[in-house]
TrEMBL record:
This is peptide-methionine (S)-S-oxide reductase. Keywords: Oxidoreductase. It comes from Skeletonema marinoi. InterPro entries: Met_Sox_Rdtase_MsrA_dom, Met_Sox_Rdtase_MsrA_sf. Residues 3-95 form the Peptide methionine sulphoxide reductase MsrA domain. It comes from the Eukaryota. The lineage of its organism: Eukaryota, Sar, Stramenopiles, Ochrophyta, Bacillariophyta. One of its GO terms (molecular function) is peptide-methionine (S)-S-oxide reductase activity. It holds the Pfam family PMSR. The keyword Lipid metabolism does not apply.
Length: 99
């Protein structure tokens, strides 16, 4: 079975917008190289407005077609919680390196 590693963000749009979340994602991510299913870049949306926002963000990253961007835009589907050792990964890494 193919799976993509992802994280689920539940948010209150009166506090932060979907577009602001995508802005943060884009600031930390460079999806300019193709990758396997497990590590592919993807943006998931729950409605048409979010889909359009995601596509606009990809267009912006690609500088209007000047640069190839490898990001799949898909509707939200089943989400499965990863094994416990994947949870809070960064916190666990920081704790183990402090020992």
């Amino acid at each position: 079975m193919d799976a993509t590693e992802a994280f689920l963000i539940e948010f209150d749009p009166s506090v932060i917008t979907y577009e602001e979340i995508l802005d943060q994602w884009a600031d930390m991510h460079a999806p300019f190289y193709p990758s396997s299913c497990q590590y592919r870049s993807a943006i998931f949306y729950s409605n048409e407005k979010q889909c359009n926002t995601a596509k606009s963000k990809i267009e912006e990253l690609g500088k209007g077609g000047q640069r190839k961007v490898y990001v799949d835009v898909e509707p939200v589907s089943a989400f499965y919680r990863a094994e416990e050792y994947h949870q809070d990964f960064l916190d666990k890494q920081m704790s183990s390196s402090a020992i």
